[in-house]
Amino acid sequence: MPPSVLTGARVLAVGALSGGVSVAALVVTGSFAAALDLPFPALFAAALLAATPLLASVARWAGVDRPYTAAAFAPLALFPMLLLYASYGLSQPHIVSHWRCGTGDVGLLMLAPFAFGMLGSLGGLLGVALAGRERRTMDTVLRAFALASTALAVALWAMSAVKAARYPVIADYVEALPGAVTVPPVAGEPLERRPRTEMPGGLALPSGEEGAKKPLVEERFVDPVPGHPVTLVRACVDEHCTFTLLPTAGGGTPSEALPDHLAGGTSKRAQPIVVRHDPAHRLWILGGVHDVQAVAFEESGGKLSLADVGPRDVGDALSPPLDWLVAGALGLLFAVLAQAWRWREAARLTHVGRALEGTLGEQGWVSFAGAMPARRVAPELSLPPGPVLVLDAPSSSDAHADAPAQGAAGSGVYRDGLLLGADTVVAGERTAVMAPLRAQCVMLDGLTLSAVLLTAAPLLCTWLFA
Questions:
Q1: What is the rounded CA–CA span in Å between residue 328 and residue 461?
Q2: Where is this region: Disordered (predicted)?
């Protein structure tokens, strides 16, 4: 098989492994997040970053020049999937007023592993293409993206934290609405009675022969909501009721005829109904307490209609989910640690770039070009003869003091303090020594970019779509 074909097949293996790792991370971290109520974005990003050594080992086998650097950028392709995950979560209604079929949700869950696997494979291939070998211009661009993404993630997290301090999460949205009005249980004579052949809310008919023969009579009660231009209408059969909300006309009566079937929530005859109003979003929320499931009505054109309410509908008055805030904070913490490590590697890179090039001889002396006197390498170092870099260029007086004594054959008098130790001399040519340091810096930029984007994606989605 030609070498080029073999190399291409091995690179495809990198993509296949990256896709497999993505699917495994999705299944494992998704299960843990659901079972233990942990932030999925943080767990997912941590699993992908933890798999970097495995992906790097396969990239090295495939002949990639910078395997760890390529592996660090592979998770970036899954950023759109984290956005879709957050968008799906924001679109789920918290107040369900209509019957919902879960077939579509199940279909999405079944398709998710395939989508994660495909994008994960693409990420592995893109990592090899973008950072698999040294290209100074591309490395600079990736560095700029890492810094810009981190700065934007910090601003995004800060804005989200401020919003979290001001507004409730979706679970507390209903109770946080001010001005709740409690309409007491039905009492007194109903407005009207109607014969019925079915129970309210789809409940089963009374069991037994006597129950089957008992005629069903629906009693309707109309109660204006104090302080609001709406009327609560309840239709009760025995102890079971359905209720709805209608606009109020003059005199406290509904502005429209009572419908034959009430579309709304269900309750018991002895249960009060709590009514809350969200004027900013033109919503009325009924129930939610006293074991009455909440339903919502939306104002539109002078009428009220049932509405499902989720984070997207009232997102400007909600806190981002707290687990997404935790995930964003963990991603930023990882980015800070990675950049601190990179700063140290960059300092070493600068130090190497300023080092003095020399040649180590058989007798342990390093000679330099020009008039610079030789330096002695510490005897305990077992460096091979050849090119070396001296990281602390000596002053002229120190160099002369450390030079071999005149007339000494192969051994000189030197001061121990001026010996070249392991921290001051590096074997190899400058380009060969600097290449792995540059790769290390780019790898840390890749890890920073992957961690920040994956953990900040849900918070970004709250600002884009909610």
A1: 12
A2: 188-210
